[in-house]
Recover the amino acids of this structure.
């Protein structure tokens, strides 16, 4: 065979056919800064026109690439400039029309999610941010495809505890407002520390102000491939484990790079980054938890899990970095509970707790993700969960996030069904002792010192 | 443009004949061909040149898929770049 051996061809096909290798998302980032207008209707019109113009061929192009290379491309998505920045110019305090405009454009283009109904409030809350925050519960519950994210902390600015307090209430309100739909609104809402501007993954994708007018970012996946590769080196030491993960990550990422370049060429839009993430799906065999268990842990969440995840996350990056010209986004292993069959099983049997998940987020991307908690959890407790996670991000100079679902009417032991890639989540217990007075204080937690590191 | 045709499944007579006939009928030139039994599965890989193919790539892929269904095998065609990029630096 010219250049490539049969074994190599079969290896690739096996990855795709049996091990769930896919391109998780091609995400087009679109700047809406030039759509600001003092008239809200005019601004919405410009936003709609620009999204439709830029992303007209996004879905058909994704499908064509998928057929050409025989690799599934699961999602075609759009991220836009944080709407709080665009809408601030409009003389209105009602931002819902902006959410509806994004939803309509996404629906007509056939993309399943559009991210960027967002605000960056890590130091202060401007008027535009204020209106956007107020509208989040209704925006998420009256639209289908709009995703929202709010940056409340950075390493350089510290943690805006006023915003953290607000987000706890907003998450609880969103859960109640979408009670008849498994509190689904919360699955589309992320709270960030150190948010990244080129993340292609939902629900936290937005198109940062440092980005160009339009860009193509690609997110890859492949936990099943890594798991399968590790099955071949059972009992070997960690040097072999790390090396095996690196090699696999390299191959997976090369495919992401190829797809990104091809999409960029076909759409005539610059290539931004490849996000080297291991993104699980609820399908058995596509789980990050099972990779950790393959390393020798009886159940994900037991002692040793954080170390295993640290190795996995680091090896994925090392292997992937050389495979792509530009790496960015969140790049690491995702641990969304509801989207990972192994995490679900571990949470259901009590091996995996919220506290252990929090520890795991110290060494991986991204954070407490897709975790269902009891519907009667006080807003101040949700805020305190956010505060802890933001502190981890702030101190460790990494992106962390919280996407929790206080599932309306549900208690520990129940399960919440989201459907599709979002999966199903067992309701996990939270600490019952109050954090209310802590959250009531408000103000800011100052930016940390980055000397004298211990 | 080069593509890789793979046929996987249970071995039987006439697999190569049927596949190569379909390719020839549509102006596809076979550059190289190899067949092995990997993990008990018959696997044939063909490197083909589809520059002069008389039909579009999607249509060719659909025809190969249809043939695969007829003879109870998986037949797929993929642009060769996916293998090059994954296995060669």
């Amino acid at each position: 065979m010219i250049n490539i051996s049969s074994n190599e061809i079969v290896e690739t096909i096996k990855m795709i056919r049996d091990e769930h290798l896919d391109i998780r998302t091609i995400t087009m980032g679109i700047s809406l800064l030039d759509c600001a207008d003092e008239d809200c209707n005019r601004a919405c019109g410009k936003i709609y026109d620009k999204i439709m113009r830029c992303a007209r061929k996004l879905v058909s192009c994704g499908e064509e690439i998928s057929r050409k290379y025989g690799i599934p491309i699961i999602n075609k998505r759009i991220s836009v400039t944080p709407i709080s920045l665009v809408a601030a110019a409009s003389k209105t305090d009602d931002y819902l029309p902006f959410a509806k405009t994004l939803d309509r454009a996404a629906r007509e283009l056939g993309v399943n999610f559009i991210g960027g109904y967002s605000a960056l409030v890590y130091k202060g809350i401007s008027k535009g941010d204020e209106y956007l925050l107020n509208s989040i519960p209704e925006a998420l519950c009256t639209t289908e495809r709009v995703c929202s994210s709010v940056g409340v902390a950075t390493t350089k600015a510290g943690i805006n505890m006023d915003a953290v307090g607000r987000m706890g209430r907003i998450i609880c309100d969103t859960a109640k407002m979408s009670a008849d739909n498994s509190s689904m609104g919360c699955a589309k809402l992320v709270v960030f520390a150190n948010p990244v501007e080129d993340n292609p993954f939902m629900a936290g994708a937005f198109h940062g102000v440092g980005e160009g007018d339009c860009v193509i970012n690609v997110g890859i996946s492949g936990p099943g491939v890594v798991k399968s590769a590790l099955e071949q080196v059972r009992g070997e030491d960690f040097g072999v484990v790390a090396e095996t993960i690196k090699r696999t990550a390299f191959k997976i990422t090369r495919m992401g790079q190829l797809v990104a370049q091809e999409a960029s060429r076909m759409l005539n839009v610059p290539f931004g980054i490849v996000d080297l993430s291991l993104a699980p799906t609820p399908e058995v065999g596509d789980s990050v938890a099972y990779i950790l268990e393959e390393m020798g842990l009886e159940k994900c969440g037991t002692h040793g899990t954080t170390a295993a995840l640290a190795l996995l996350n680091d090896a994925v990056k090392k292997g992937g970095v050389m495979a792509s010209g530009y790496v960015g986004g969140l790049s690491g292993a995702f641990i969304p509970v509801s989207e990972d069959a192994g995490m679900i099983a571990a949470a259901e049997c009590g091996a995996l707790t919220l506290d252990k998940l929090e520890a795991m987020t110290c060494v991986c991307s991204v954070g407490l993700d897709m975790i269902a908690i009891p519907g009667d959890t006080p807003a101040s407790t949700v805020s305190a969960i956010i505060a802890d996670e933001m502190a981890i991000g702030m101190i460790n100079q990494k992106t962390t996030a919280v996407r929790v679902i206080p599932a309306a009417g549900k208690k520990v032991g129940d399960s919440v069904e989201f459907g599709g890639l979002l999966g199903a989540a067992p309701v996990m217990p939270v600490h019952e002792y109050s954090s209310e007075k802590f959250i009531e204080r408000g103000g800011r937690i100052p930016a940390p010192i980055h000397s004298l590191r211990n | 443009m080069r593509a890789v045709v793979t046929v996987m499944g249970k071995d039987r007579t006439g697999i190569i004949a049927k596949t190569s006939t379909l390719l020839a009928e549509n102006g596809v030139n076979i550059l190289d061909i190899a067949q092995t039994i990997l993990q008990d599965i018959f696997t044939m890989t063909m490197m083909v040149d589809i520059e002069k193919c008389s039909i579009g790539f999607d249509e060719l892929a659909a025809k190969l898929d249809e043939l695969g269904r007829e003879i109870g095998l998986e037949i797929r065609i993929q642009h060769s770049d996916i293998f090059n990029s994954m296995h060669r630096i």
In short: Chain B touches chain A at residues 2, 4, 6, 8, 31-32, 34-36, 38, 43, 45, 47, 57-58, 61, 76-88 (CB under 8 Å). The mean pLDDT of chain B is 91. The helical segments of chain B are 15-25, 57-71, 81-87. Residues 16 and 66 of chain B are 15 Å apart (CA to CA).
